[in-house]
Amino acid sequence: MELGDCCLTSSSTKGEKRKLQKEKPFRGIRMRKWGKWVAEIREPNKRSRIWLGSYTTPIAAARAYDTAVFYLRGPSARLNFPDLVLQEDELRDISAASIRKKATEVGAKVDALETSLHHASASSSESSNPSRVFRKPDLNKYPDSSDED
């Protein structure tokens, strides 16, 4: 083993950081092997974590994380989307359960919106390309004899 084999050079650590940024586009989230995005956060001054849920989009997971970190650390927290945190309703109970509940509510709403927007854009792109549109067959109707050749 040579002298520099065990150490990483500064260029390799920069490449690894870029790779991590591509895999993990937002703070506080990660992607499961099967494609779901999950969010969790550590409780201050404890080793335990608050589970914030799993979502189909990284944006929903990041918004859930933002909600939790805002309620834990206040307005000085480092957020993924600082413009989108709503300060209108205060959490009176700052327990892990209440923070989890509020964060999962926000994440579920964003996930539903993101998923519906994705499906709407996919269906509009399919309708603009008529060669890719497939009609679902009517299963209650007998097949036409002209279709059977």
Q: What's the tally of helices?
A: 3
Name the assembly state. single chain
Helicity range of the residues? 40-55%
Strand content: 5-15%
Look at the structure and give the mean pLDDT: 76
Shape: elongated
Order of helices and strands: HEEEHH
Q: What structural class should be given to the helix and strand makeup?
A: alpha+beta
For the CA atoms, what is the radius of gyration? 23 Å
Q: Can you give a write-up of this model?
A:
With 149 residues, the chain is an alpha+beta fold. It contains three helices and three strands, in the order αβββαα. β2 and β3 form a beta hairpin.
Helices and strands in order:
Blueprint: H1 10-23, E1 29-31, E2 37-42, E3 49-55, H2 58-73, H3 96-128
Family: Belongs to the AP2/ERF transcription factor family. ERF subfamily.
Domain AP2/ERF: 25-82
Keywords: DNA-binding, Ethylene signaling pathway, Nucleus, Transcription, Transcription regulation
